[in-house]
Design brief:
2-enoyl-CoA Hydratase, Chain A, domain 1, 3-stranded mixed sheet, 437 residues, alpha/beta, 7-stranded mixed sheet, 9% strand, 2 domains
Length: 437
């Protein structure tokens, strides 16, 4: 190979390198090509490459013809074969190019049809969007109207709440004034209660002194009676036959009938204040009559009883509840405080129409060195009041608060005083306002 051939080979390699560089730079900078364009580009590159190779081979053949005439025919025949091959390759490439062009045309037609279909879809979507937009506008208008209505309602409710708050504040102020008045009334009642308790304490002391005097007089009477007994014994024996009934006493299991209460000798007097020892006497008599007979009634007779000890009253009621024989309570004149409670809670109760029944709150003298001690005693008194009067209020078919309220309706002292015929209507007891024999 001579210098001219070497130069031509180097030029051919440079051209190929230049084509490859340009192709790569175009590949990097140019936008993406379609499949047909890429195939066409490849065929063109191959064609240029083949052309360059052909040129190189022509030069080689010419050089070889110059170097050796002997191989000229051989090279020429080879060159002719190569040309034929190139022609055949070109024909194949042209055929493939035509095929690619047809495929590209088909792809373009298909693409065109898809574009038209997409346009139809877009128009359809535009119509649907228009409908949706109109519907949204209508909904927005409805929401705006609802919002305006809600705002008006909120303003109305706010104004209404403001008026209600103002009314509640006025009611609160009114209640505060009423509470202040109630506190003042309670304070006055406490003062009155303390005074009454002091008066009752003085009265109790006076009654105790009178009881002692009566006991002393009783002793004197007993001495006198002992002296007279000897003188009267003979006379009594003579008159015994005339004074005695001389027949067995009859007892009725149902003592009340035809408006008349028949009271037997199974009676227990309950008169004067209920003090220490009263419950002992009453309960002992109840046990005594129960031991004699549990079939016939026992009568607790109250001529005049102002009440007294709560604990003694409690023991009497428990003895009445435990009695197998029925207990009948009879009031002739006056039953107050603990006596009134005994009457109200009795299963069988009787009273003269003009007898007086009196209920009041429990009385006590609160004393102590400090306010805490006094408060403790006041709490104890409140608990006693609940225990004493809650059963009475239930018997009268009202609450404890209503029961206490009625106490102060007529008198500020809280002494609820009623004649027996009216007390019956007020359900102070299930008693009969009748006469008895």
């Amino acid at each position: 190979m001579n210098k001219r051939s070497i130069f031509l080979c180097s030029m051919l390699v440079a051209c190929l390198f230049h084509h490859v560089t340009i192709a790569e730079s175009e590949k990097e900078t140019a936008p993406p090509l379609s499949q047909a364009e890429r195939a066409l580009k490849k065929i063109t590159l191959q064609r240029d490459q083949l052309a360059a190779e052909n040129t190189l081979r022509d030069e080689q053949l010419k050089t070889e013809l110059h170097d050796s005439s002997k191989e000229t025919k051989k090279l020429r025949s080879t060159y002719i074969l190569l040309q034929e091959r190139v022609k055949m390759e070109r024909f194949k490439l042209q055929t493939e190019r035509s095929k690619l062009e047809l495929e590209n045309a088909l792809e373009a037609a298909k693409h065109q049809k898809e574009v038209e279909n997409l346009k139809v879809e877009i128009e359809k979507l535009d119509l649907e969007n228009l409908k949706v937009q109109k519907m949204l506008q209508k909904q927005l208008a409805d929401l705006a109207a609802k919002k305006q209505k809600t705002e008006l309602e909120n303003l109305f409710n706010k104004e209404k709440d403001r008026q209600s708050l103002s009314q509640l504040e006025r009611e609160r102020d009114t209640l505060a004034l009423e509470n202040a008045k109630a506190h003042e009334e309670v304070r006055k009642l406490e003062i009155t209660l303390n005074k009454e308790q002091q008066n009752i304490k003085i009265e109790m002391a006076r009654l105790g002194l009178e009881s002692k005097r009566a006991a002393f007089k009783q002793k004197q009477y007993r001495i006198a009676l002992t002296q007279l007994n000897s003188d009267l014994e003979l006379r009594q024996k003579r008159e015994t036959w005339k004074s005695e009934v001389n027949q067995e006493l009859e007892y009725n299991e149902e003592p009340f009938g035809k408006g008349v209460l028949t009271i037997s000798d199974r009676r227990i007097p309950l008169n004067g204040p209920i003090i220490k020892g009263t419950a002992d006497y009453v309960t002992e008599r109840i046990h005594y009559f129960n031991n004699k007979s549990q079939a016939f009634p026992i009568f607790i007779m109250i001529d005049r009883c102002p009440g007294g000890s709560a604990m003694e009253r409690y023991r009497i009621l428990k003895a009445m509840e435990a009695s197998k024989a029925p207990i009948h309570v009879v009031v002739k004149s006056f039953a107050a405080s603990m006596a009134a409670i005994i009457l109200t809670l009795a299963e069988h109760s009787y009273a003269y129409p003009n007898a007086i029944i009196l209920h009041h709150q429990p009385l006590s003298i609160v004393h102590g060195e400090n306010l805490t001690q006094q408060q403790e005693q006041l709490e104890t008194l409140k608990e006693w009041a609940r225990r004493l009067h809650l059963p009475v209020a239930k018997k009268m078919e009202r609450s404890l608060k209503e029961f206490y309220a009625q106490m102060y309706e007529k008198r500020s002292t809280g002494d609820w005083e009623e004649f027996a015929d009216r007390a019956k209507k007020l359900k102070m007891g299930r008693f009969h306002c009748q006469r008895h024999s």
